[in-house]
Each structure stands twice: as structure tokens, then as C-alpha cells.
Amino acid sequence: MSGFTFTIDGTEIAAEDGQTIMEAADAAGVYIPRLCDHEGLRHQGGCRVCTVKAGGRSVAACTQPAAPGQTVESETPHITKLRRDLVEMLFHEGNHLCPICEASGNCELQAMAYRLNMTAPTKFPYLEPCRAVDASHPDIALDTNRCISCGRCIRASLDVDGKSVFGYVGRGIHRRVAVNGSDLAHTDAAITDHAVSADVCPVGCIIRKRTGFTTPIGEREFDHGLIGRKIEEKRRG
Amino acid sequence: MVDELPKARIATTSLAGCFGCHMAILDIDERLIELMKLVEIDRSPLTDIKRFRGRCDIGIIEGGCCNEENVEVLRDFRRHCDVLIAMGQCAIMGGLPAMRNAIMHSDEPLRECLEEAYINGRYIRNTTHGIPNDPALPLLLDEVYPCSEVVEIDYQIPGCAPEGDIIFDTLSQLLAGRFRGFERERIKFD
């Protein structure tokens, strides 16, 4: 396998043939924000939070192959604002009430809002959709008010578990993640599935029953330190 | 002897909130003494003054708008304050009261919410069998609105409730004219 280099915000990054911009950046300890991408799952390029400028064009870093000599911009004010707007729109598209959510403190959407400094008065309307809670399964509940349609559970179920518990339905803004049955109890979902493990759902949509609020405030994943710090620590050595 | 600078005037109020953010103001602890050297508190639940006594430099709003009185108070704050701060998740995005906007799964979420609270709820003992409608009660709005949907908001202090530290630092930086946003590590929505 042959290697080459390209730059992200002026930092030289080593890459191998076939690697995406994000894979090479992760290996080099440069964090590019992402929500729909998750370690061990196939890339989707859906959320666009990892948008970077490669050769002046906006591309999803998780799916775009790295190219020799490429100039990639990631942490520019323009791209950071674009990412913040995307994350803010995800907050507004669903019903994201951090103070009552068991994922708070471990939620990647919330942590991404912290990292992108989402604190200014909003300019987007809140859609406040009416969405169902599916608590039919004995061990798992789905609060779809919090779903951001990242599709991580779909890929985990299909590719890792060899099932197809979850899938997309609808088009455009109506596209949602749904279960492949009348409700979750009528699918072959099991608590041991990778798709329902704690890390796959980035928000608090997939709930493992009887485990909520077990970690005290102050000890949760993003209580101290920004999302992406584990990748950035690689660079500091 | 150098003339003392005039003190900045601060007003606070709690709209559709739980007073947790006002309790969080008290979490500033002994630094309140330091802060009080710089500011004078106008209308606020802390002073129990009900109406503005003059123009204020900073207005702090806890809670969003769930009734017409909230809207009136919020507009009054905007008229009287140079800088208006929405403090806490309720003021910023509606917070817990905003659950009634969407989670009732109904075409008329407000009616369903009131009927559940006063008539149909399993643990209700309501001898009048009616929804309170005394003319003295402020009319409820169709939805709970974040402050920024009603008036222009200058700054937002996130948190439920925000920590005393972030409130103290934001206020002292604003008073010194050197507020440049929050450190990302200290932003919390819960």
C-alpha cells in the first residue's frame, strides 16, 4: 500500500491509498466533528457535520477519499459556522430537552453543540414535531423525539448484528428511522445487539431500560472535556 | 478622593421557570459581596421591587413565555434594559414547560394538557371539576415560547441551572466591557 501526504488547515497529514480524509485525520490526531459516522460502522456521509473544503469544494470528510497534495480546510470560521448551523437545526428539528434526557452528558449531539459553541440566540424556528415513544420491548425503549436520523443503528443492525431491526422510511424532511415491524417488540431486536449498545445511538433515542441516570453528573463522558478529545490526544502524544 | 463610579443597575425576573436560575445566582456565594460593590439591583424577586425604578444596564430573564403576563414582563424588560440576558434553558429554548408544545400528541395540546391536569388525571381531586378560569389569572399562550422569539435577546447563559461560576464570570465580564463568549468547556445544557 503506498502512502502520500495532504494538508488539513496547514498541518501535513500522512495517508494511505483508499483512506478517507477523516480516517487519515483520525490517525494523525486531527479531529473533524461528526455525528453519523461511528467507529466500526460503514461511512454514510449523511449528517454533513464533517463537511470540509477540499480543493475549495465542500465535501463530507467521512466519505471523501484523501488525495495526494490535497489542501483541506476544516476549522475555519466559515466551516465552523456551517457545522454549528447544522447542529442547531438538528436540535430544532426534533424535541431535544437536555434537562430531562438520560443521555445528557453522554450525548454526542449535545457535546457537539458545546464544541461548536452553540450559545447565541437562535434564528431558526423550533419545529416541535409530535413523535411517538415506543416502549413495547421489555429491555429497550425508543424515544423518537430525540432521533437525529443518523442511521448508525441501521448500519449496526444490518452489518454487525446481521439483522435489520431499523431502517429509513419517507423522503426529504419526512425521512425517519423506523423499526422493521409494527413496534420494537415485534422485531428480533435484543438487548445484546450492537445496534442498541450504549455508544451506537449518539443521542437518547435508543434507551436501555433500567439503566438511565446511573452515572452522576460530573462523571459523564462529556462533563469534562470536549467531544473529540480522545482523537486530539493522539496528536499531543 | 476619587469619585466613585455610578453603580450599574441590574434587574431580574422569573417567567415560566422554576426559580432554579435565581437560586443559581445565589450560588455566586461570597462573591455576591464583590458584585454588589459594582451593581445595584432594581426590579427583582431578590429585592421584591415589582416595577422598574429607572433604566437598567442589564436585565436577566429566567424562564420562557407561557402566558400573557410573561410576554408583558419580558417586553417591559426589553424596554428598560440596555442588555438583556436569557439565563437557563427555559429562557433559551422553552425548557421543561415547552414539553406541552409537542409531547401531548394532540391537535390541541394546551386543552389536553389542562384536561389532564385538572379533570382527567388519575390522581386529581378537583371539587370544581373545571379548569381554573378566574379573570385574575393570566391567559395561557397556545405554546411556550423561548424569550428570543418574543423580544431581541443579547446574550444567553446556558444551563439548567447555570453554575454560579458562569453567571458570576459573565456578569463581571459584561460589567467590565470584556465579555467575549464562553469557554467551550464550561457550556452545559443541563
Please give a structural write-up.
The complex is a heterodimer of chains A (237) and B (190). With 237 residues, chain A is an alpha+beta fold. In chain A, 21% of the residues lie in helices and 17% in strands. Chain A folds into two domains: 3-75, Ubiquitin-like (UB roll); 84-208, Alpha-Beta Plaits. In chain A, the strands form three sheets. Chain A has a five-stranded mixed β-sheet with strand order 2-1-5-3-4, with helices on both faces. In chain A, strands 6-7-10 form a three-stranded antiparallel β-sheet, with no helix packed on it. In chain A, strand 8 (166-169) and strand 9 (176-179) form a beta hairpin. The mean pLDDT of chain A is 95. Chain B has one domain (8-97, 142-186): NADH:ubiquinone oxidoreductase-like, 20kDa subunit (Rossmann fold, 3-Layer(aba) Sandwich), CATH 3.40.50.700. Chain B is 31% helix and 19% strand. Chain B contains seven helices and seven strands. The model of chain B has no long low-confidence stretch (mean pLDDT 93). The interface between A and B is medium-sized, with 30 and 32 residues.
